[in-house]
Amino acid sequence: MQILSAEQIREWDAYTIAHEPVASVDLMERAAEACAEWIEKKGWLHFDYSVYCGKGNNGGDGLAIARMLSQRGCKITVHILEFGHKGTDDFQVNLERLHECNVPIVFIQDNGFHPTPKGNIIIDALFGSGLNRPLEGIVADLVDFMNNSGNKIVSIDIPSGLFTDKSSKGNTVVKAAHTLSFQVYKTAFVMAENGQYTGQIEILDIGLHKDYLEQHKGAFFQMTDETFIRSIYKKRTSFSHKGNFGHALLMAGSYGKMGAAVMAAKACLRSGVGLLTVHLPKCGVDIMQTSTHEAMVSIDKDEHCIISIPDDISKYNVIGVGPGIGLENETKSLLPAILQLKKPLVIDADALNIIAENKALLQQLPAQTILTPHPKEFDRLFGESPNDFVRMEKAQHAASKHNCVIVLKGHNTFMAAPGAKGFFNNTGNPGMATGGSGDVLTGIITGLLAQKYSALNAAILGVYLHGLSADMALQFNSFETLLPSDIIKYLYRGFKSIITEKKE
Ligand SMILES: NC(=O)C1=CN([C@@H]2O[C@H](COP(=O)(O)OP(=O)(O)OC[C@H]3O[C@@H](n4cnc5c(N)ncnc54)[C@H](O)[C@@H]3O)[C@@H](O)[C@H]2O)[C@@H](O)CC1
Ligand SMILES: Nc1ncnc2c1ncn2[C@@H]1O[C@H](COP(=O)(O)OP(=O)(O)O)[C@@H](O)[C@H]1O
Ligand SMILES: [K+]
């Protein structure tokens, strides 16, 4: 699924109006009908509704939804923000239509807001993608009033006060339980800082013209959904042998952090790598050999941390470095040498922190290196960002500048690569917020890279499978009990769901 900006959505609406063709007010009718149907399917027709409308097209949606719910037998009160100016054409048409339904309308002109009866559902149709400045004055007071009412709020298209394409940090924004949005995701929905506002997001199909997306391919962020993932997954043939799937080298672990190496190794093996060697300090050998029988080990000369590169590096086709390596000076000194090997590379955790301390190393990354920072590691590498939008733009910029793939981890992990607009992931859950989940991801991506996925596809597929397997593990876990090892255990379910032919 694509993720569009407010401007792109406006263009797409206009394209549909011109090319379907369909009248703008009929498109609004479709949008409202989709919302009313969603409410009906939810079994919510026995509730009463307070519908809050601005006078733009978002408000127009609200009026049409009010009419449709009233026709379905719901008791409705409509509240319209009234500052004396006329509404948009489609708003005015819907106001006239609503008058015919005898729905009571309250005009809001000051702070004397009517209390919302307990149990009413609030429909928030104050502002949509046309928001052009933060809410203030009476409007901000109204939104505070709605948020504090204790009523469930359903926002239409986007919670009012939330900007589609830039940060709304510190602004007054509706806190919705559900957001009913049209056709595609909006950029605001994938930013962690907005998670508190959108609630559960439902994307409703309003039949916008498919040709628009075709004609502007490459201009949109992409949500890596199942269809997209299936298109990049490489099926194995019956005659495959281990030589087809690469020999990965993982450089991981230090005294007290050997678990990171074990988890990365197991995840790498469970992702289909042909052969795996783990380069470890001496203290980790027994741990690895007894816990992970399929992995070979290469033993560093140091007892506690890795300070050297294994012999005969030519046999490895990829390297994953970072999980649990620590920040000892000798390990730090090793990193430039690893970069100089010019192998396909995945860099995570302390290896990222070492680069952050010596940013000149960024210039030495082999082409198409994959970096997997969480936001703090990212900020150490590329400087602090005031909000998630700026951090994402920095990731795009850094990926182009250093010719690398950046996996900026989070709830909707963002992947940036040169020449691509960017990809957001939509699998995963808060059960993954336990130390070690990142090590598992490094193992998975390293395993896929060894199997000759391109760097970008290894990142996209790895992040998707990582989250999906964690989602599958929830069948027998709560968020609290889910462990990174469970992600590895359920990787087979993740893979199977991609491989299994979909029943239509
Ligand atoms: N044909 C279409 O274009 C469709 C549009 N739809 C709806 O239309 C919405 C966009 O409508 P509009 O472009 O009319 O925009 P909005 O309804 O979001 O509101 C824009 C109006 O609010 C004012 N405004 C913006 N920020 C303000 C602020 N902080 N305080 C006070 N006033 C402010 C603007 O000056 C403008 O008058 C979408 O979100 C969606 O709900 C849907 O009906 C689907 C079809
Ligand atoms: N709420 C969440 N939703 C989806 N994915 C999550 C969530 N919390 C954590 N994750 C994922 O778990 C991983 C955590 O990685 P990281 O922060 O490096 O942890 P660690 O270094 O402790 O292993 C990332 O891939 C991240 O995307
Ligand atoms: K809204």
Automatic annotation (TrEMBL):
Its EC number is 4.2.1.136, 5.1.99.6. It catalyses: (6R)-NADPHX = (6S)-NADPHX; (6S)-NADHX + ADP = AMP + phosphate + NADH + H(+); (6R)-NADHX = (6S)-NADHX; (6S)-NADPHX + ADP = AMP + phosphate + NADPH + H(+). AMP binds at residues 409-413, 438. K(+) binds at residues 58, 124, 160. Homotetramer. Catalyzes the epimerization of the S- and R-forms of NAD(P)HX, a damaged form of NAD(P)H that is a result of enzymatic or heat-dependent hydration. This is a prerequisite for the S-specific NAD(P)H-hydrate dehydratase to allow the repair of both epimers of NAD(P)HX. This is Bifunctional NAD(P)H-hydrate repair enzyme. It comes from Pinibacter soli. The lineage of its organism: Bacteria, Pseudomonadati, Bacteroidota, Chitinophagia, Chitinophagales.
